[in-house]
Each structure stands twice: as structure tokens, then as C-alpha cells.
Amino acid sequence: xILTRLLRxxxxxxxxxxxLLVLALLxxxxxxxxxxxxxxxxxxxxxxxxxxxxxxALLAVAVDLVWGxxxxxxxxxxxxxxxxxxxxxxxxxxxxxxxxxxxxxELPDFMVFLNWxxxxxxxxxxxxxxxxxxxxxxxxxxxxxxxxxxxxxSRVTGVYLSIITQALTYALMLAFFxxxxxxxxxxxxxxxKDLLGFDLQxxxxxxxxxxxxxxxxxxxxxxxxxLVLSKLGRVAMAIRDAEERTRFTGYRVDRVMxxxxxxxxxxxxxxxxxxVPQVGIINPGEFSPLFxxxxxxxxxxxxxxxxxxxxAGALLVNYAKTWFTGALPEVWLYxxxxxxxxxxxxxxQGIAGLGRGLGxxxxxxxxxxxxx
Amino acid sequence: MKLLDQTRQLLRRDQVFxxxxxxxxxxxxxxxxxxxxxxxxxxxxxxFKAINDLNLYIDAGELRCIIGxxxxxxxxxxxxxxxxxxxxxxxxxxxxxxxxxxxxEPEIANAGIGxxxxxxxxxxxxxxxxxxxxxxxxxKRVWPTLLARLTAEQADHIDQVLATVGxxxxxxxxxxxxxxxxxxxxEIGMLLVQRPRLLLVDEPVTGMTHQEMDRTAELxxxxxxxHTVVVVEHDMEFVRSIARKVTVLHQGSVLAEGSMEAVQNxxxxxxxxxxxxxxx
Amino acid sequence: MPLLSRLLLVLLLGCALxxxxxxxxxxxxxxxxxxxxxLLDSKFPVKEQAIEQLAQTGDPRLEExxxxxxxxxxxxxxxxxxxVMATGQDADLRVMAVPGGEPxxxxxxxxLKKITLNNRxxxxxxxxxxxxxxxxxxxxxxxxxxxxxxxxxxGASRQVLTERLSQETDAKVKETTALVLALMDLQSPDPRxxxxxxxxxxxxxHPQVRAALTQLLERESDxxxxxxxxxxxxxxxxxxxxxxxxxxLFFGLSLGSVLVLAAIGLAITFGVMGVINMAHGELxxxxxxxxxxxxxxxxxxxxLSLFLxxxxxxxxxxxVGILIERGVIRFLYGRPLETLLATFGISLILQQLVRSxxxxxxxxxxxxAWMAGSWQVNEVLxxxxxxxxxxxxxxxxxxxxxxxxxxxxxxxxxxxxxxNRAMARAMGVRSQWVDAMTFGLGAGIAGVxxxxxxxxxxxxxxxxxxxxxxxxxxxxxxxxxxxxxxxVAGLGLGVANKLLEPWAxxxxxxxxxxxxxxxxxxxxxxxxxxxxxxxxx
Lengths: 372, 280, 537
Fold this sequence. Notes:
The complex is a heterotrimer of chains A (372), B (280) and C (537).
Chain A: H1 2-7, H2 11-33, H3 44-68, H4 77-96, H5 109-113, H6 129-153, H7 158-177, E1 189-190, E2 194-195, E3 198-199, H8 203-229, H9 231-241, H10 243-248, H11 253-279, E4 281-282, H12 289-302, H13 307-327, H14 329-346, H15 350-370
Antiparallel strand pairs in A: 1-4, 2-3
Helix pairs in contact in A: 2-8, 3-8, 3-11, 3-12, 3-13, 4-6, 4-11, 6-11, 8-9, 8-11, 12-13, 12-15, 13-14
Chain B: H1 2-11, E1 34-45, E2 48-59, E3 63-67, H2 74-81, E4 89-94, E5 98-99, H3 105-111, E6 113-116, H4 128-135, H5 142-147, H6 152-164, H7 180-193, E7 198-202, H8 210-223, E8 228-232, H9 236-242, E9 245-250, E10 253-258, H10 260-265, H11 267-279
Parallel strand pairs in B: 3-8, 3-9, 6-7, 7-8
Antiparallel strand pairs in B: 1-2, 1-4, 4-5, 9-10
Chain C: H1 2-16, H2 31-35, H3 44-57, H4 62-71, E1 74-77, E2 82-87, E3 94-97, E4 103-104, E5 112-114, H5 119-134, H6 139-151, H7 158-167, H8 171-186, H9 191-201, H10 207-219, H11 223-272, H12 280-297, H13 302-327, H14 336-358, E6 374-378, E7 381-384, H15 385-407, H16 409-419, H17 421-426, H18 431-454, H19 465-478, H20 483-504, H21 506-523
Antiparallel strand pairs in C: 1-2, 1-5, 2-3, 3-4, 6-7
């Protein structure tokens, strides 16, 4: 079976998918079946928080795919995440219908507030879930494709690429802050009521969204794993290590970069789309360069070029963030800053590297046997 | 009616559109089966003329050595052939119909020109086997690469080449652990699986022991004939051991061409090159 | 005493009025002195006549008299019905005889009766005073008077003005007077007079002239005048537009100078050393806070503290920079992406540090008086001084840096290391020391840039963050490792931003510039002025 082939050499992946499965089976039971005063009851708040982490984990996988395996350090992946989120947010906004504060059946509240008389053309179609889903992948994908097509063709790589991806997300942030853009300006999109007719506040909807996030993460992980193991994945790593050599070997380096970058952007968009209904808001803050660079540190902490490491890093750093901002808010930025320095200086392989160091001798033996 | 005439011209069935016609170099002399053809090529960097009105013709199946003092333009010449550097003027043709100046590096590689870098460049984190698998001649576009599966035939071929370059025992080891000489061999192996018609080999014996050098010489001479091999080398002893025809570059143009013996006795060459080389 | 003073007064009055002595010439009272007693009359028409007569005398004492009259400082002394001027109150009451100005002692407020005025007289007095100012000895006063007439051309008669114009020597006053006359002629019922009034207006940028012309165009019936007037108005508006462009250019250069200041330190660390320093913005922030602290230490010497802040900021930011280089960056040479992440972490720590020490709120940094205000070039163009100073400061810093890199031993070593590290080391350059010094230099300049920024924007923990992307754009746009490129790119981007602003709005202009750079980099990855060379194999 494909699954066994993909995970044969991937201890981290096995553990990850195993625990995801356990979590997916257990969480609904603990949340829905147990009464709230039961000691093992999983509160909806915690469940939603977990769902949010899973979305971040998928985003981290997307970043790891291009940074860890292709060597492109994107400081703008938050933009793709946010665009996917906005696409979903627009659908949720249309679902509100006439239940908004102004009760306008056609226009979202903020448009009524701005005295707009009709829906802008780019909002058309977002009342259909299918269309919104399409846009969740298409918009980030298209942006990444166009951006990448220009960038990779002219061989903009390394720090230059990092800087212009940062400029990209910065420009988008400024743009989305503008009211005239028609995406709610400062406040973004919020006050969502329901998704596909299900009340977003209901526990069962929350559980379903959590399960969807877990499934998306699992599928995204497997897809990236398959990609990494394929010949294309090895070409990607070859580009990362010796771009020139790969080019003289006959590979269109720019095309490989373009397609992987686009795929990664689509994954980020999907993560964003799952994130928005769970947190209940999307605003231009998601475009901030700080958020994008934070994603990179999740991956770095977990260990770049190991997909499970990216997941672990995202979960760990975000849990730490939740804990710090609750208990010691002023310490969080110190901790995050120190994390950047410590990881780059002392843990270039991340936690996964630590774990690998311990398990190297067993695995080396096995790989020798496994190869034909 | 001019327009009507033009339309008729466009619709003629016995001709293809102009842009569909293969570009053929009218000057290219195929009677000597010329494979690589450089004429009037010049390139300068910030006013420094690295290549100056260079003319070079390589026949199919030939083993050609290119020598010249430092800064003579040897590496730049390789760069021009493989598309890494675009010349300011001149023409470069591969075979009769391929205008190399219009192709990108990967297109040139896929057209059948393989290049070994001066500094051995292999994929350090891939196994030796993977290095060859990636280099192997195949459809190297994105989607076919994504779906590619290694056939038994291809694996055999890779093993064959591994045996040729003497790296069979290292096949699963990462390339980064190889010695300098082994990396040179691996890179030559990567060229071989690419099945190029023309091999450009830049300083292949740096960092090799005498035995390794002998084996390299043997390998390169055995490749000539089926392939065309161009070797750039500093080591005169090595050049003497393989050379049939030698081209001497000096200040970006061809100074002399001929057998090693003839070149060695050319007074101009002695003056500008061998005189200096003697002291090396 | 009262007797004595009264005696004195009588004597004085006698002098002032008509006391004839047989042997003296000029026995007749001057018209000025003759008209004065009329002011004491109780009837307003008589007083009006007196003012009229007085004004026509052109006597040098008129100004003082009229000003006093207008201010209500002229009184009649009840005791002998003589004219006096009195200022101050109660104990400070000072009374002087008019004319003459001899002090009269021993008079209390009760002894005085005010010379009353009506509105008509006030108008008369003001106009007379304006006319007087027009012929004042001080050209500055004349100019003020003429300029005030521009706004209120009815304040003087045409005749007076023509007369003044013929006598005037100061070019500027002459010009303004002619302008007033021309504006008056625009109201003339005679079309020829209106037509003749137009040419002198051509070169004026005064808003009143534009308003008058616009009004004229609305009511003018004569076609010839109308055409000429609209030509003149177009000409003037063209010039106003032109000055508007200059102002935009200035704003652009000013923004550009800030960008250059922010980017130039980065150009060194990024261009020369290949190090991405994401904490560069925070080093600027440190410089700005240094200025703040300096002002807290020297609250009474704002200007001095600013000057002292420049070296202080250079040293503090430079030391922090060296610390960053020695502590973190030197372990990451050759791994630019990791350097980027590590320095970003440092930037977070520095930001939070400042928040902990100075609070997250913005701090106010004062601007010294000589930097406040603006330089009024003409009626439509004024340049703010602080921006002008910072533009100059930016060029100065650039020149200094250029000299350091091209004329000093450190500069030579820096360039050597940046071109070929191994070779430089072989030649005996201590590359580690050079790295630390270069980074310190770049960081120090960031600190100095922070001092300049403190004069333009709020000093707060996010100060650096808002500039880092812009400054990277400048460096990348200009071409890495090229100081001139940084200068041209910074100023160019600043101007482009300001040129776009009028029709795109500030935010959209910024977005457009960013998008432009993103596209530009993809077209020319090495920037405006790339470093050329043979690609190394």
C-alpha cells in the first residue's frame, strides 16, 4: 500500500500520523460524550485551540517543503495563509445574509457602513461553498505562480527572494488595511454565523472543523512526503544543495521551484481556510511580516527538511506562545527572540536533529538493508 | 492586392511557416562532421576581454585538449558553450541545427552537452546512486520527473557506470563522504549516464593520484569516438598522455592548434605558454 | 508744586503755540501746530476736519500723534484745555505735552478728559497711518504697509500710491506697490485701464492676485481684457503648479533622505559583508532613544543635547552592533538565511527591552528652535526646516561614509575583505577585526539615522520595524555593495513615492512602489548598479 511505502523510513511520520489518528478518535468523544464536569472532558475552547495548532502545523509543513527541501526561505507564506483565510471568510460573510447589524441581505455590514450600494465583482460567487473552496486554493496558488514565475525565471534566490517575499506580504498587509479594498479594512471579516448551515458556535461544528483540520494535516503531510520521496523531491534537494549543477544536469530549475512553491502556497491557503472558521476572524494582521517569519521559526525549531519536525515545531512553539502570553506576556517576545538565536546557533537541525542524533545507528543499519 | 498575396503565401501547403522551419546555420561545414562550431566569439567583463574573436571547431568523435595559461579564457569558453555566459558577439552552433546561443543551460544539457566543473560538484546529501539517477538521461520536465519510476534496466545501467568509475562499493553512501578524487569520478559518471554527445571536462585530474590519473586518461580515451570529448587541463603530463589534437588559448583567442608535438614546437606557444609553464 | 507746574505748562504751551519774538524768523505756526487745537473741539465733524488737515501736512510727528489718538491715549487737560498724551494708570500715569513731549508732573486721571473718536475717525486714522507707513523711512515698514494694502486695496488712494511709487527706492516695496496699483486698476471702469493693469500682475504669486483675476474673469464683459486676463491667470497658475512640483520634489527628497539614512548602514553590512541584519531597524531605534535620554539629561539645552546625541548614538548603536557581530553573526558567516533569522530574533529582544525600560508608549523628543518652522521661499513655496536639515545631514553622513570607505585604512581593508576574504587574510588583514569594525560602523550609522528620525517621527519601540523593509528595498534596488546606488535608489524611491501620492494616496503609493521594486528586482536581480565580474566557478 502507498501509505506503508511513504512511511517506511519515516519514524517521525509514523508517530505523527498515529497520534493524529488517536487524537481524532478521542477528541470528539471527550468533548461531546462526556459531561462538562467530567475530569476527562475536553473543553470546546481547548479543542478549537488544538484545531488552530493543526492549521499552523499544516502551514509549517508547507513552509518546510520549500525551505527545507528546496532551499527557498519564504518570508511571505503568511500571505498565502491569509489569502486562503480571506477566501473562506468571504464565504462565511455571505452566509450571514440579513442577520448582520444592518440587516442588509446582500451586503456585509462593513460595506453598508461604507455606504456601498452593491457587492464588488470580486465578491461574486462567494455565496457558493464550492466556489469559495476553489478560491481557497486558486488565489494563493495563482499569486505564488505569478510571483514565482517572475522571480525564479530571473534567478532571484537566496536572501533576495526572502526579502522580496517579505515585501510582498507587507504590501498586501498595507493593501488589506485599506477600506477601499473591500475586505473590511482594519477589522477584517468577522461575526460569522454558520458554515454550510451548521452553527459555528455549536460544539459539533467545532468538532467537525477539528477533524477536518486533522485530516487536512494528515493528507498534506502524506502528499508532501510523497513529493519528497519522488524523483522530483530529490531534484528539489539537489537544487537546494547545488543549483548550478542541477541546471547543467538538464533540469529546468526555475520550473521545479515554480511548481513546488505554488503547491506550497496552495497548502498554506488550505490551512488558512480551516483556521478562519475556528478562530472566527480574519484580519490584515495575518499578513504581517512578523507572522510569516514566525512560521519559519516553527520549522527551524522542529528541524528543517524533516516534515514531522515542522509539525512538531509548530505545535511546540504555539503551545509555548499560548502559555507565555497567558502567564508572562512581557516575557514572550524575549523568549521568541532567544529562540531564533539559539536555534540558528546551536540547533541548526532543530529538535528532529536532536532525535536523529540519538537514533542514527539503528536507522543506518536498516537503510542499508532496505535499499535494493 | 498586396494583402491578398501575403495571405496566399501564408496558406501555401508546400511550405511551413517561417518560425517553424528549423534554423540551419548556412556556414556550417558538415563535410568534416563538425559537431561544435564557435566563430568570432567575443565576451568581455567590465572592459576585460576574456574571449577575443575566438574560432574553434570540434569534430564529432574527437578528443580535444585545450590548454593555455591562467586567464586565457578556458573556463569562460566552457561557460559560453554551456550557456552560462552569453557572448557579446559571435555564433555558437551544436551540430547543424542547434543554435546554442538561443538555449538555456538545461536545454543545452538536454541537447547532449555534459559538463564537469573545475571544482567537483556533486549532490552532497544524495547517495552516489541517487546522484547518477538524477543525472541519467530522461524526460526532465517537472511532471514526468514527479511520476518517474526507476526501471530495472535503468538501475542496471547506473550500476554499470558505477562499475566503470569504480564507485560500486560506495553506491549507497552519501556523496559528501567521498574523497576529492572519488567526487571527480562521480561527476564523470554523472556525465556518462547523461549520455551526452559532447563532454566538456574541466580539469578532471586535480587532486588525483597517479594511478587515478592513468585510469582517467584511459576512460577519456575510451569515450572518444562514440562521444566527443573536450578536456581543459593544466597538467601537461596528463595532456600529453591523452592528446591527439591540442588547442592553445592565449588572451581569449586560439594561438595554435595541432598535434601535441607540433604545438610544443611552435615558437609562439613556447614564448607565451610553455616558457611560463616550464617554471611551474 | 501745582503752581509751579502750571506755570511751566503755560510756558510750554506758549512755546508750542504762537509766541512771536521780534528778532526770530518763521513766526507763523506750522500747519501741523495750527490744526492741533481743532482736536479739542467737542464736535466730531470738526475733529474729522482736524485729522484731515493734519494728515495733509505730512509732518514727521504725525505717526506718533495718530497712533496715540487711535489708541485712546490723547487727552484734554481740564485745567487749561491743552492737549496731552497720557499712558499708564494710577501711580504710573505719565503725562506729556503735545506737541513737544515734555513730561508734565502732578496730574491725576481726574484732571484729564479723553479725546473721543467715532468709527469714521478711526477709519480715517487707520488709512492715514497706512499711508504714513508707506512713506516710512524703514523699508521693512513700507513693505508691510504695501503688503497689507494688497489684501485691502481700498486703504489708500491711487494718487498717494502713484506718488509713492515714483519716489520709492526699495525694489521689493516698489514691486508690491505696483501690484496694489494694478489690483486697483482691475476695478477701474475703463477697459483700457484694466487691460494695462494685467501685465504687472503676471509675475505675482500672491493669492490675492489670483483671487482678483478669477473674480475679474467672472464679471468681465470686454473680450480683449478677458482673454488677456485668462492668459495671465494661466501663466500664474502654471507657476504655482511648478512651485507645487518643487515642493513635492522636496518632500520626496526629504523622504528619500530618511530612506538613505536608514539604508546606508544596511548597505555596508549587507553589501560589503553579505550579512542580513534584520536588527538594523532596532539599532536606529536605539539611536532615537539615545536622543531622548540625552534630552532628559540636558532638559535646558535641547540643541546641544541633539548634537551630543549624534556621537552618543553612534557609539551606543555601534557597540551593540559589535556585540551582535561577535556574539552571534560571526558563527553564521556563509549562511545568510540563518543570519537573517538570528538577527530577527535579536530585533525582537531589543524591541522588548526598550518596552520594558521605557514603556511601550511613544516618547516625545523635542525639536530645537532653529530646526522648527520653515523657510518661506515665496508666497506658495515654503520648506520645513527640520526636513531641510535632515536632508543636509543625510548628505553629510553619506559623504563621511564615502570618505571612510575610500580614503582610510579601515575602508581599504573593508573593501579588500569584501572582495576576497582569503586573499585579504593572506595579505595580513585581520579579517575578524575588520568584520567587527565594519558591522560596528554600519550599526553606528543606524544609530545616527535614529537621531535624525527622532526629529521627524514618534520615538517608540516599533520605530525600527517600520523602516526595515523599506531600507532593504533601497539597498536591493540600488544594487548591493554600492553606496552610490543606495543614495540614488533612496532619493529616487522617496521622490517616486511622493509623486504617486497625490493621485494614489499615501498607502497605495507605498504599495505601488513596493510592487515596482518587486518587479524590478526580478528584471534586474542585481539592482540599478550591479557589481560586474566573471562568474566564479
